[in-house]
Design brief:
CATH architecture of the largest domain: 3-Layer(aba) Sandwich
Structural class: alpha+beta
Largest sheet: 9 strands, antiparallel
CATH topology of the largest domain: Aminopeptidase
Low-confidence stretches: none
Oligomer: single chain
Shape: elongated
Number of helices: 11
Number of strands: 23
Helix content: 25-40%
Length: about 475
């Protein structure tokens, strides 16, 4: 028996469970892309698949809708793959283990992939519904959205006729999203020098755990702790008391997810080692007090460790540079909007940190709704790195999606929403990125909105999808597709 069997809308949840069985991490979308092509063939649809694994499917208008403006339905097929330490799932080979708890669907030990499995399942359900009256529907399902929107940047949309876009990649029911931030990825490197270990030091492993993490756009305003930054602060606090060397350091797995865990192996001078565990406990108390509301379960654990035969610590100057550059680089909210209450305007997130043999590698997700502010923040990152003897490049840039004062499609959606919900929807901008800005650059005069059902804690192992909200949003989409101009 399927886990989601019996849930309504039946077609949606059947397809959602099917695609949850298909591995779909970013850059590994061939299997899900081929599944979409097989669906198109089975239903006699016009389709296109490119070398990036993007898929475009077209379903012609039903009787009476031939003269209506086509509607583009859009979402992405890849998902953020986060898992708990105890989870043995291989995201490149295994499907997800879905579970239902009341109104909420989640996945055992992993992210759920409702971001953006919701769009994929909804499009498949709509395209397979032969009873639905609709204009020409053009589905654009992109690859590698979560790692820089590469699919949207590379997709050919010349076969499309529509200029009305319904993006299905948000997670707040009752909100019509009409603008979002642009962004980029900053890849930074700091060279380090290794040295032979001596008997003057003892080896410890320190883990920063218990953080909530979250989406670096959608949840950056909650100002949750970043495990990479907490570890860096601990190093800074050690400088006045301990003679130490960093052996290994790693934290975070996705540049657009606030890291929940960071691990370091450290050498501490023997004449100071007795004080080190108690020092770590004091640091934990400081962090717990600072983040008592946002991350009440922060833990810093320390244990003695054996230094591997081939392991060498970085020397003292490199240890000092690592400590200082991590604490000097900006991270988190940089500015907020004064036009839209509560909206973050510019931010960045240190999502990935890893110490390799000869260099420290950092990956930042940079976001801003103002292009000039984003450029300034990127420059600041590069300047700081260069001041410490490092370097960096800015990649995976994508534009902001600018708000349109005149939007007939938005007005039509508001009208349908009012008829169904007996209230007005909220019209909002968000700090997270969606692909609408890129698509607007490819389709002149694009008139778009973005919607989605209620989700919680996307990009984390606590990701959940509301069953009831999904049903309501699905019915809203059907009503919007049947609405004539």
């Amino acid at each position: 028996m399927n886990v989601l069997e019996g849930l309504e809308p039946q077609a949606f949840f059947s397809y959602f469970e099917e695609i949850s069985r298909i591995p779909r991490p970013s850059y590994k979308e061939k299997q899900i892309s081929d599944y979409l092509v097989a669906f198109a063939k089975e239903h006699g649809l016009e389709y296109y698949q490119d070398d990036l694994w993007n898929v475009v499917m077209i379903k012609e208008a039903t009787a009476g809708y031939e003269n209506e403006e086509p509607i583009i339905l859009q979402g992405h097929m890849d998902m953020v793959c986060e898992k708990e330490d105890s989870c043995n799932i291989d995201f490149e080979k295994d499907g997800l283990r879905l579970r239902v708890d009341g109104d909420l669907i989640s996945a055992e030990g992993t992210t759920l992939g409702a971001d953006d499995g919701v769009a994929v399942a909804m499009i498949l359900a709509l395209f397979s519904d032969e009873s639905l009256a609709h204009p020409r529907l053009e589905a654009v399902l992109t690859a590698s959205e979560e790692v820089g929107m590469d699919g949207a940047k590379g997709v050919d949309l010349s076969m499309l006729k529509g200029h009305r876009l319904l993006n299905l990649d948000t997670e707040n029911e009752g909100v019509l999203l009409c603008s979002c931030a642009g962004g980029s990825t900053a890849l930074l490197q700091l060279p380090v020098t290794r040295e032979d270990p001596t008997e003057e030091f003892l080896c410890y492993r320190v883990d920063v755990t218990g953080l909530l993490g979250g989406h670096s756009g959608g949840e950056i305003h909650k100002e949750r702790a970043n495990a990479n930054l907490l570890m860096a602060r601990m190093f800074l606090m050690m400088q006045d008391t301990f003679d130490f060397r960093i052996v290994s350091l790693s934290g975070g797995t996705k540049q657009n997810a606030i890291p929940r865990q960071t691990t370091a192996k450290i050498l501490v001078a023997k004449n100071q080692d007795a004080d080190f565990p108690s020092f770590v406990k004091r640091v934990e108390e400081i962090f717990r007090k600072e983040y008592a509301i946002t991350d009440p379960d922060i833990q810093l654990t320390v244990r003695t460790e054996t230094l591997g035969a081939e392991e060498k610590p970085v020397d003292n100057p490199s240890t000092q540079r690592i400590t200082r550059v991590l604490n000097a680089l900006p991270c988190g909210i940089q500015s907020v909007s004064h036009a839209i209450d509560g909206l973050v305007k510019t931010s960045l997130n240190l999502g990935i940190l890893i110490l390799e043999d000869e260099k420290l590698q950092l990956e930042y997700c940079v976001r801003s709704s103002v292009g000039s502010e984003r450029k300034f923040l990127e420059q600041k990152l590069l300047i700081v790195m260069e001041a410490f003897g490092g370097a960096g490049v800015i990649v995976a840039e994508y534009p902001a999606w600018e708000f349109q004062t005149e939007s007939p499609f938005r007005e039509a959606a508001i009208k349908v929403f009012e008829q169904m919900y007996q209230k007005k929807p909220e019209v909002e901008a968000i700090h997270a990125g969606v692909e609408c800005g890129i698509l607007a650059g490819k389709i002149k005069g694009l008139d778009g909105i973005s919607i989605g059902p209620e989700m919680h804690d996307i990009h984390t192992t606590e990701e959940r999808l509301s069953i009831a909200s999904t049903g309501r949003v699905y019915e809203f989409v059907k009503a919007l597709l049947q609405c004539k101009a």
